[in-house]
Each structure stands twice: as structure tokens, then as C-alpha cells.
């Protein structure tokens, strides 16, 4: 009866089933409790399978409809994966990955897809099979799919790491690579990059061909060995190598002059010492109010030559209201203000780094170049909004907001994140953050 109800009521039926699960009592019997957990896992797998089927069907249907209208003939499904991402509340990149994986599973891995539908395979396991066979020829990919379900293997009962090993093992047997191929691939794939991992650290990582990698490791090891022979050296080998890497890459001393410009977003009361609310460094996170005050107070002879620009917010709305700077040489204030206001790509769930300042309503639709009609976007989302039948327009809100209407006529609201200093009122009338959790007002 549940299956029939869901089939006949669509999304409303699915939400009703979810609501019913939330009203279910937890059994007192341990076996039944664990059985419920297993059954829920099977249900999750079946839902993932249906999500995958629905995603592919939506893209195919959208493509067919656009072809009839002579829209986007070269790539009629453009933007479909981004809309799937919105529906799943994941990043656009995640939506593209999900769409590609779903299409490959449905077309080339029928047994794995059926296992997911039957609750015998988790989505994590299905992803391992998909990624492990992605680069194989179609016949070999389908062969691996069949081998995984041979009774003698029990591949899906051995954990994800083992499953990955088995898939990789068969892939290497079916399509062996020569040493020359691997070396050429290593040279082609060489790269290095980095990203911030928390408020205080950056991760630098990369891959190099063996010959280049060994040379780098030898240089770093030599620097560590040489330094540790010096009397009074207290750094670990890893610390010495990190310092050497920095010095060799930049030509600068570890504590030496790197000119910077740092934006601090704060309630004006922080600067006067009346508030200790954390201060935002856009794109990097929060620092303590005390640290921010020291940075603002640093003199012109500071060894890091830091130019600090304070951006103040109106405490009731959180809107940027003023700039101050010792540096007076900074241009493009509107662009900076928008980047500070938005912090990340404004597409819901994306959180990518801002690459473009975009018009909410395009210029070709008479959109104005104003703060109200602006949004910070990553490169991908800036392109996606140009898809046919994708519409955006500003809407009133307590913070900068605009509506997004997708080709399927779903509507989402993009609201700028709160900035330091914005006071949120609770139903009790108190201001959020006014007093510590569980604490009482002064004199209370």
C-alpha cells in the first residue's frame, strides 16, 4: 500500500513517508532496533537509486524540450545538473558529479544499479564501482559489473576499501598499463596548489613525476640535515623543511616583509573596546576582537608592512555602512564591498570562492550596475544563470536577497550571510549573543 501511495502521490507521497518515519518509535528490543537501522539503510539506497534515475530523466526531458524549441542545440541539457544540485542541497560541482555518475550507472552498470534499488548496495559502494570503472572501455566496465555479482566473490560484504581494491585489481587485469604510459601520465598530471584548511593553516599539496619529486625531497632533506647540525637548533625536521620550502619558493625570509592588505569586517564597538565580537577577514574566517584591534593599531614600521582596512557594519541590519583606512590608496570600493557582503558564491549550497561580480538582473534585461542588483558568483554559477528559463531578481529582506527561479519553476532565495555586528532578536526579546549561553544579564 505504501508503494502504491507513493506512486500515485509523487513528491507529496514521499514527504508523507518521511514524516511517518519521523513519528516512528524506537523499539525497546535491541534486535529490532538494529533491524530498523538496516532497513533504513536499504531505504536510503533505494532512494539514491530513484534520485539517480530521476536526475537522468530530468536532464533527458529538459534536453528534448529545448531541442523542440531550438534552444542550446549543442548542449541542450545545460544547467540541469546545477538544478539537481539545488534540489539535493549540494554544491553545483557535486550536482555535476552526481549526474555523471547516475548516467553512467544507469547505462553501463545495470547490476550495480539493481543492487542499489534492492538495498543490497550503498551509494558509497556504487560510487566506488563507478569511479573504479570510469576509464575502462564499455565492454570491460560491464564485465566488472558482472564479476562483482559472482557468488564466489561477495564483493559488497567486505567493506569499501576492499571493494575498491577488487575493482582496481580487475581494471588492471583487463586494461594493463605499460610503464611508459604511466610515466607519460605522471608528467601530464603534475601539479601543485593549496587551500586554507582552517582559520590558521593552509595546505600546500601536489604531485610530481618521480624524478622531480625525488629531487625536491632530497633538497628538503638536505636542508633539514644541515640545519640540525647547527648548535641550538630546536626546530623539528618537518618545521625546517617547511621553512626551507617557503624560503626557496619565495626568496623571502620566513619572518620577512610580505606586503599585505587585510580587510577586517566588524561592529564599530569592537574598535573602541566596547565589544569583543569576533572579526571577519573575508574569505578566511574569523579572528578575535583583540587580535583585530592589534592589527588596526600596528604602526607604519610594522615588519609585515600590513595595510589594514576596517569595514564597519550597522548593528541592527548588518549592512556595510563605512570604510576607514590608513592606506587611502585602495580603489574599486563597490566591488570589494560586494565581495565582503557575500563572502562566498551566492548560489544556494555552493559556497565556492567568488570569481565574478555578477548582475542579478542582466544588463541586457535593463539590469543596473548597483549594489542591490549585484551578486558574487563562482565561475560555474555565473555561467549557469544564463541557462534558458533561469531567472533571478532582487527581493526585499533583512539582508541583501534575491530570488532564483529555475527551468523547472522551483524557486530559491539567496540571502547574503550575516556579518559581524548584526543583532538577531530572539522571541523573548533578547538579542542573540547578548549574554553567554545559560548566563544571566548583568545584575540579573
Automatic annotation (TrEMBL):
Sections of the chain in a coiled coil: none
Location of region: Disordered: 406-444
HNH domain sequence ranges: 349-386
Domain DUF222: 50-309
Pfam families: DUF222, HNH
Highest rank taxon of the organism: Bacteria
Family matches, as InterPro entries: DUF222, HNH
Protein name: DUF222 domain-containing protein
Amino acid at each position: 500500500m505504501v508503494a502504491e501511495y507513493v506512486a500515485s502521490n509523487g513528491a507529496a507521497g514521499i514527504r508523507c513517508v518521511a514524516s511517518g518515519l519521523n513519528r516512528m518509535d524506537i523499539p525497546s528490543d535491541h534486535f529490532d532496533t538494529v533491524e530498523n537501522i538496516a532497513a533504513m539503510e536499504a531505504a536510503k539506497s533505494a532512494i539514491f537509486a530513484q534520485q539517480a534515475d530521476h536526475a537522468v530523466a530530468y536532464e533527458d526531458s529538459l534536453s528534448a524540450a529545448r531541442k523542440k524549441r531550438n534552444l542550446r542545440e549543442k548542449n541542450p541539457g545545460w544547467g540541469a545538473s546545477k538544478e539537481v544540485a539545488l534540489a539535493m542541497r549540494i554544491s553545483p560541482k557535486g550536482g555535476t558529479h552526481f549526474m555523471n555518475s547516475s548516467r553512467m550507472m544507469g547505462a553501463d552498470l545495470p547490476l550495480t544499479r539493481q543492487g542499489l534499488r534492492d538495498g543490497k548496495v550503498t551509494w558509497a559502494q556504487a560510487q566506488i564501482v563507478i569511479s573504479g570503472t570510469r576509464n575502462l572501455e564499455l565492454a570491460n566496465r560491464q564485465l566488472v559489473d558482472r564479476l562483482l555479482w559472482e557468488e564466489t566473490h561477495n564483493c559488497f560484504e567486505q567493506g569499501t576499501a576492499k571493494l575498491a581494491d577488487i575493482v582496481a585489481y580487475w581494471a588492471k587485469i583487463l586494461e594493463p598499463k605499460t610503464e611508459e604510459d604511466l610515466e607519460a601520465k605522471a608528467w601530464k598530471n603534475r601539479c601543485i596548489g593549496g587551500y586554507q584548511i582552517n582559520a590558521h593553516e593552509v595546505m600546500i599539496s601536489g604531485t610530481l613525476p618521480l624524478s622531480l619529486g625525488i629531487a625536491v625531497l632530497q633538497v628538503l632533506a638536505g636542508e633539514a640535515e644541515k640545519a640540525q647540525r647547527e648548535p641550538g637548533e630546536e626546530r623539528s625536521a618537518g618545521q625546517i623543511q617547511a621553512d626551507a620550502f617557503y624560503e626557496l619558493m619565495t626568496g623571502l625570509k620566513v619572518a620577512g616583509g610580505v606586503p599585505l592588505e587585510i580587510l577586517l569586517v566588524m561592529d564599530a564597538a569592537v574598535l573602541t573596546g566596547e565589544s569583543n565580537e569576533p572579526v571577519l577577514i573575508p574569505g578566511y574566517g574569523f579572528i578575535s576582537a583583540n587580535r583585530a584591534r592589534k592589527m588596526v593599531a600596528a604602526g607604519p614600521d610594522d615588519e609585515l608592512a600590513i595595510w589594514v582596512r576596517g569595514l564597519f557594519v550597522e548593528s541592527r541590519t548588518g549592512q556595510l555602512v563605512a570604510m576607514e583606512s590608513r592606506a587611502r590608496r585602495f580603489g574599486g570600493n563597490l566591488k570589494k564591498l560586494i565581495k565582503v557582503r557575500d563572502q562566498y558564491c551566492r548560489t544556494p549550497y555552493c559556497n565556492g570562492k567568488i570569481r565574478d561580480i555578477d548582475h542579478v538582473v542582466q544588463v541586457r534585461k535593463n539590469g543596473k550596475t548597483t549594489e542591490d542588483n549585484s551578486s558574487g558568483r563562482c565561475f560555474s554559477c555565473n555561467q549557469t544563470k544564463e541557462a534558458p528559463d533561469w531567472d533571478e531578481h532582487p527581493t526585499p529582506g533583512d539582508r541583501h536577497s534575491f530570488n532564483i527561479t529555475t527551468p523547472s519553476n522551483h524557486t530559491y532565495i539567496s540571502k547574503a550571510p550575516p556579518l559581524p555586528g548584526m543583532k538577531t532578536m530572539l522571541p523573548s526579546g533578547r538579542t542573540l549573543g547578548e549574554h553567554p549561553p545559560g548566563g544571566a544579564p548583568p545584575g540579573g
